[in-house]
Amino acid sequence: MPLSKKTTLLLKIFLILILALELGMHSYWKNYFGPYVSPVLALVSGLLFCLVAFVISGFQKEDMTSFPSKIKIPKLLIFCLLFVIFGYWCGNFMNKVFTKIPIDPAISDIIPSLQLYVARFLNYEPVYAVMHFEKYEMYPTYLPLLWSPYLVSETANIDYRWTPYIFFMLAIFLYLRLLLKSNFHPIEIGIKLFIPFLFVYLYTQFDAAVLGMTVELLPVAFYFLLSLSLFRRNIWIISIGILVCLLSRYSFTFWLPVYLITIWIEFGFPKIFKTSIILALGIALLYVAPFLSKDFSTFSKGLAYYENHSAHAWRPAFPSQADSKPFHLEQGLGMALHFFDYKAEERSIPERLKFAKAFHLSICLLTAIFILLGYLYYRKRELNVKIYFLIALKCYLLIFYSFVFIPFSYLFQVPLFLSIPILYNVRFSKAQDKVAIKEQSVDQLGETAESNLLVKA
Fold it and tell me: How many CB atoms lie within 10 A of CB 280?
């Protein structure tokens, strides 16, 4: 049933307010309501954003990849200039963060680890070998596309933290191209172009460590590419969108099979077969042949290291204090602290951690099943499959990270930033490009005429 104009307007206003709340729980209100309530608000606001976005746009005929109009040169130049201005403005704040927070393994081993991956690769040394730091050692767990982009950083001799920002800007530029092809009002395009940089700016002001010590904007950029590739006709675009995420931050493990099953239903077996072949070849060429084949236990060793590290992360920050909690569980993101306290008097920490891991696995699987059932239920009701699976991707990652047993703050950037492409697909203005409307009308008339000829034949 179509929504009335008044209802749609109210829902769009509510969507913006919910996004402001979700963004706040990760920046200006991070942990404001305490380590127990804040994670709940962050999760609920994110899920509510997904629900409202689905009600507004889940059944609309248009999406970011379906606008027919061409990009006008003056319009392109103006918004490219705005893109550069926004990027430079935000980059200045990023630079201040990088100057203030040095790259130091004593503070964070993420970037020093990346430097070691790259150095080993350039020196023809085994990349996936134990990494030794001054006071500890660790086993490498990063997949190739999470560290190989920094070969450019090393070769060009630039700060590694600029590389994720560059990839992030490239992903935003691809979305800008779609925005410019749309018939949105120019003011709406300008505001939507500014929003991603606003997200980053707020991190520089309220959680600078996330940008100064980590490089999560790279996976954010990769997931933006995935969101752009959803259900495209070109199998190479679909495959690349999946591959860049699969070989970097592969948190969408349960969502991916549902997506592939849906491609099969929507386009038939030949397309999913070809896509699977490309994915298999990509994994073989980028990971198995150059790295995993040297030691096939590499992946299992990485998982074992992560298991041991999770046990360490669940140790109380001050063991001598009875009410002390683990540091990473008290940062206002993720539900792990609730599991840490669950039956604390009856169960040991390893038992509670084991329960948290089992719950995490179960709820992720159930979420993926729910997404598939939702698609099967709505597909005959004019469902926009692209928008549905974009919203479902954010929803799944929200669940995945909210219930992960080590809720590092930087991990939550990916589901948060996926609000941006969802918001891009929501129209807030009337169509302005009359040429685009005429072109669309001509196309529709042509399709009608062609159908009539077929019927007569």
Answer: 12
